[in-house]
Amino acid sequence: MNIEEFRAYCLSKKGVTEDFPFDEQTLVFKVMGRMFALSGLERIPAQINLKCDPERSATLREEYDGDIIPGYHMSKLHWNTLMLENLPPKLILELTDHSYDLVVSKFTKKLKTEFDSLD
């Protein structure tokens, strides 16, 4: 999977926007204003950061040693960095969904109502 495919997948999800809040090279994806994914566009190999349940993070890091690592410049407990080119696309999409779902599950009641009212 390449970064363009990843970007298209993120933007296809309900309530998602993209922007560059940190600098011109760090693309951030948010659902209802809450960050769930980001990518340093200048990083080689292509990498993305995704939120992850802490227990699952540990398992993934062991299973995909070197291809899934603690989140670069993020909370090492709640974020993973994935090497896009080395992982199966199906896994990347699954972990993107997991990150998105974690963020959505933490919405306030007001934000959840707004989210639910989107198409």
Descriptive notes:
It contains 4 helices and 6 strands. A hairpin with a 2-residue loop joins strand 2 and strand 3. It is globular. With 119 residues, the protein is of the alpha+beta class. A 6-stranded antiparallel beta sheet has the order 1-2-3-4-6-5, covered by helices on one side. The termini are far apart. The longest helix is centred in the C-terminal third of the chain and has 17 residues. It has a single domain, classed as Aspartate Aminotransferase, domain 1 (Alpha-Beta Complex).
Mean of pLDDT: 95
Record field, number of beta strands:
6
CATH second-level architecture: Alpha-Beta Complex
Main beta sheet strand tally, sense and closure: 6 strands, antiparallel
Radius of gyration: 14 Å
Whole-number tally of structural domains: 1
Helix coverage percent of residues?
25-40%
CATH topology: Aspartate Aminotransferase, domain 1
Determine the strand fraction and express it as a percent band.
25-35%
End-to-end separation in angstroms reads 28 Å
- Any idea of the CATH class? Alpha Beta
Taken in chain order, the helices and strands follow as HEEEEHEEHH
